């Protein structure tokens, strides 16, 4: 009983401390101060005043990225060009596709600071004129319109003959693989990060992937399980689509509740951090709402 009480008090104190820190950081941002440890690309941190100041060299790269994108160059080509020229990010690494996309969508470059963009999105807010602008608002919003226009999935993607394209992931960097042909009927897959020079995964033939995929499903017994499932339900009277949908939803809700309890157990036993717990719970809530 004593251990349980002490553990409950420790948990309560941790929650209070976390809440106080979050509130302190939010208030700092509302005052136009930079609360993170690392400045976004294009800026440095004035540690005396906790303000963002323009880094002239990086700012010129930011302007160039927006100019290249608005001139019709794609995100992949922009990242590739920057890497070819030896440009580096704040962490002294090569530019990635996601890094360039994040730069194009970050309103800090027009002086607008955002908070809780990726975590605690229910508490998201923006602060106007919190940083010196690097580009004009017109340039920024033109880029947003172009990004939205290009977001729609191309019809070729949905009817592609490369069934593993976008589904299979690179074992070295985690990026999706993209299908290609050598023009002689041989299909292969290439890591999308290889296009921008940040991954050295060799080309993988489609036949190799197909063989490994079949080995995987045979090892897991998926086909046998499917056959048993069909045989078990062959003699059951077919239910209405509406009733089937209700039963499916009930199963999904039960599974979500079961996972929520597991996340709670992992959090209480400090197997995951507070941030990870909140993210997992938000994901489960989103699934439940859908």
UniProtKB/TrEMBL annotation:
Keywords: Coiled coil. Residues 40-153 form the Recombinase domain. Pfam families: Recombinase, Zn_ribbon_recom. Residues 1-32 form the Resolvase/invertase-type recombinase catalytic domain. GO terms for molecular function: DNA binding; DNA strand exchange activity. Residues 232-288 form a coiled coil. PROSITE patterns: RECOMBINASE_DNA_BIND (PS51737), RECOMBINASES_3 (PS51736). This is Recombinase. It comes from [Anoxybacillus] calidus. The lineage of its organism: Bacteria, Bacillati, Bacillota, Bacilli, Bacillales.
